[in-house]
Amino acid sequence: MLTILIVALIAAGIGALIGYIARKTIAQSKANSAESLAEKRLIEAKNKEQEIILKAKEQAIKSLEDAKKEEEERRKEIRRLQDRIEQRESVFEEKMVQFEGRKVKLQEKADEIKLIKTRIEEKHEEATKEVEKSAGLSREDAKEVLFEKIKETAHEDLLALSLKFDNDNHEQIEEKAQEIMVNTIQRTAANHAAETTSTAVPLPSDEMKGRIIGKDGRNIKTIEKLTGCELIIDETPGLILISGFSPIRRRVCSLALKKLIKDGRIQPAKIEEYILEAKRELAVDIKKAGDNALQGLGIIGIDPKLISIVGRLQYRTSYGQNILNHSIEVAHLCALMAEELGLDVAKAKRAGFFHDIGKSVDHDTQGTHTEIGYTILKKFKIDEDVAQAALTHHDTNPPLLLTKIVMAADAISASRVGARRDTYEQFVTRLEELEDTAKSFPGVSKVYAIQAGREIRVFVDAKQTDDYASYNLAKDIARKIETELTYPGEIKINVIRETRVIEYAR
């Protein structure tokens, strides 16, 4: 048993040893295989690293080669630019050398010309002295004779050219002007009613005349004192006349009288009360008239004080023509003409409307209505061109085209049939002034004003005045009439020169 046990123990030991050896062998084998795998992978990694390094080197070499090529190209371009600059510098230096050479030559020629000029002047001076000595005239005297001869010859040539120019262009210009005027006039319609310097107030009965006069004339004296008008009470039944230079004062007096007649209590206290009330009503009417006129024309942005000044034109007349209606008509005419000529229509309308604004207060202010109008428009900051049109619309030759349009429109409005009226004395006086103005020129033998002063026929002495002088005479007469006389519309000056030669055959 013991032997068996020993044998068993030995066998167990041997089996354990064999198992240990086997396990160690297996472990060693596994270790060797892992080590070989690691070595293999390490080798592979090294191979890949070598490949990456090679690729990086190749890429770096390629980039370096590209950079070298690009640098080489840039160097070539820089060399080309340097060559071009050097070439230009050489050309510039050559041109500078040539320029210096030419400069020297020109300076030499200039000195030579200066020397020749000096010699010529000396010769000219000597020749002039010889000519003066031979002719017996000094240089100034000879120059004066020459200028007179040239002036005489050129004067006739200039007149001939001027006459030819006028004849060639007169018909065309006149036709265009007539077309613009006719288009303007036919597109504008206006009513005209003559106004006088007196206003008639109807009375319910003749007994009212005595009440208006009052005891010892106190009522009529109060009315005349407060209104500044004169009451004319004559034998005309049912009527009393208010006479006064100012239409506004006549209007105040008329309104006050109508209120007094309606009330029936005519006494100084009531007279004063109704006159104040009439003034207030008139102020409202004036403002309303100005508003209506400006709104009708489409003129906006006007100061209320200026609107009241405009409304006063409702009660102002010129040769019987209402100035407010006249201003409205002129504004429309100016707008139409400005439209035909391609100018600023709104500005032309303003200039036409405000051209007579000075007449609204010319009874109460010193100065001409043109100066007063300019001052008013400048005070209310109206456009300078519009103010200049108000100032210069009666000048002979105004500087602005806008003013000339206003002048034409003003003449059209004033010369309409029935627009204004003249008394017989004024008519005769105007004709005499026209004839006297034409007679004041030398060489005029007879003068006749015809067609109500629209045309003047001037007969000249054929021995004293030639054809060219007749042409100039007509222009001189026209300028003098424009400068010295006031007249509506246009006046035609017709100069007639006639030569009669009589011979008898015996």
Helices and strands in order:
Layout: H1 2-135, H2 139-186, E1 198-202, H3 207-213, H4 218-227, E2 230-232, E3 239-243, H5 247-263, H6 268-297, H7 304-311, E4 317-318, E5 321-322, H8 323-341, H9 345-353, H10 369-379, H11 384-392, H12 401-415, H13 424-439, E6 444-450, E7 455-460, H14 467-484, E8 492-497
Parallel strand pairs: 7-8
Antiparallel strand pairs: 1-3, 2-3, 4-5, 6-7
What does this structure look like?
Strands 1-3-2 form a three-stranded antiparallel sheet, with helices on one face. Among the domains are: 198-415, Hypothetical protein af1432; 424-497, GMP Synthetase, Chain A, domain 3 (2-Layer Sandwich). The chain is flat and about 195 Å long. It is mainly alpha-helical and 506 residues long. The protein contains 14 helices and eight strands. The model is unreliable at 191-195 (pLDDT under 50). Helix 6 (268-297) crosses helix 7, helix 8 (323-341) packs antiparallel against helix 9 and helix 10 packs antiparallel against helix 11 (384-392). It has helices spanning 2-135, 139-186, 207-213, 218-227, 247-263, 268-297, 304-311, 323-341, 345-353, 369-379, 384-392, 401-415, 424-439, 467-484, and strands at 198-202, 230-232, 239-243, 317-318, 321-322, 444-450, 455-460, 492-497. Helix content is 69%, strand content 7%.
